[in-house]
Write a structure and sequence with these properties.
Layout (H helix, E strand, L loop, with lengths): L15 H4 L1 H4 L7 H21 L5 H18 L8 H11 L2 H19 L6 H41 L10 H36 L12 H26 L11
Helix pairs in contact: 3-4, 3-7, 4-5, 5-7, 5-8, 6-7, 7-8, 7-9
Length: 257
C-alpha cells in the first residue's frame, strides 16, 4: 500500500545541489565533481522513487537498481570517507538487492510456467502462489528499508542544519552502522511474521480445496500495523526532506558533515 502526493514543488529540486554539497566533501579533491553528480542523481532518484512514485511501478524500480549498482562502487571506494551519510547511502543502495531477488523469483516462476513443469498439479499451484506471496513480501520489505534509511538521512540532515555542533557526538559512523542493523532487523522480523501469516492462510486454503485457486487473504492485524507504519514513515520522510530542501543553510559545507 502506497500513499503518493506530489509534495515537493519543482523549484525546491533546484536546491538539492546545495543540500548535497556536503556529500561531495566525502571525496578527495580529484573526484569531487564526479562524486557530486553521481550521488546527487542517486539520492534524487531514491527520493522520487520511494516518496513520489507508485511503489509497484517496475520502471522506476529498475532505474533505481541501476543507479544503486553505479553508486555502490563509489560509496565503497577509497575516494569516499567513512561518514554516517556514506553508511546510510551504502545500505540504501544494498536494499535494491531485495528487488533483484524478487525479479529472479518471478523469472523462475515464469520459466516453469512456460515449460509446463508442475502446471495443473496441486503442488504446482501451491508453489506458484507461495512464490507470488514471497515476491510481494520482498517488495514490501524493500519499501520499509528504503523509508527507514531515507528517514535516517533526513534526520541527520535536520540535525546538521539546526544543531551541527551539539549533535556532532551523535552523528558517528558507528551509530549509523548500528542504526542500519536495526533497520534490517525490523525488516526481517516483519518479513518473517508476514510470511508465517500467509503460509498459514495458504495451507488452510489448500486443505479446504485442492482445485479451486486461492482467494486473496483478508487484512490481518499485522498487515494493518504494517500499513500504518509505512504511512507514518512516509509522512515523516516528506516532512524531514521538505524541511531540509526548503531551508537555506548558513554554511553549506556543514551539510552531511
Amino acid at each position: 500500500m502506497t500513499f503518493k502526493i506530489n509534495f515537493f514543488p519543482l523549484t525546491t529540486l533546484n536546491r538539492v545541489p546545495a543540500l548535497l554539497r556536503g556529500v561531495c566533501c566525502w571525496c578527495t579533491e580529484g573526484g569531487v565533481s564526479a562524486c557530486r553528480g553521481r550521488l546527487r542523481r542517486f539520492l534524487l532518484l531514491k527520493l522520487a522513487t520511494v516518496l513520489l512514485l507508485p511503489g509497484g511501478a517496475q520502471l522506476p524500480l529498475l532505474a533505481g537498481c541501476v543507479s544503486s549498482l553505479r553508486a555502490l562502487p563509489l560509496l565503497r571506494s577509497s575516494r569516499v570517507s567513512t561518514k554516517p551519510s556514506t553508511v546510510l547511502l551504502d545500505q540504501l543502495a544494498l536494499a535494491d538487492g531485495l528487488l533483484l531477488l524478487r525479479w529472479m523469483l518471478q523469472l523462475g516462476v515464469t520459466l516453469l510456467q512456460w515449460t509446463g513443469s508442475g502446471s495443473g498439479s496441486v503442488s504446482g499451484l501451491w508453489w506458484t502462489d507461495a512464490v507470488s506471496v514471497l515476491c510481494q513480501q520482498l517488495l514490501d520489505a524493500h519499501q520499509l528499508v528504503s523509508l527507514l534509511l531515507l528517514g535516517l538521512l533526513g534526520l541527520e540532515a535536520t540535525l546538521v542544519s539546526h544543531w551541527p555542533q551539539q549533535t556532532r557526538h551523535l552523528r558517528t559512523s558507528r551509530r549509523a552502522q548500528l542504526s542500519c542493523r536495526l533497520v534490517w532487523t525490523c525488516a526481517l522480523l516483519e518479513l518473517l511474521v508476514s510470511l508465517n501469516s500467509k503460509h498459514q492462510t495458504l495451507s488452510a486454503a489448500l486443505a479446504n480445496s485442492s482445485s479451486v485457486p486461492l482467494s486473496p487473504t483478508p487484512l490481518l492485524p499485522a498487515a494493518d500495523f504494517s500499513a500504518l507504519l509505512r504511512r507514518t514513515l512516509w509522512l515523516a520522510n516528506l516532512w524531514l526532506h521538505y524541511t531540509v530542501l526548503q531551508r537555506k543553510p548558513q554554511k553549506t559545507r556543514e551539510f552531511f558533515h
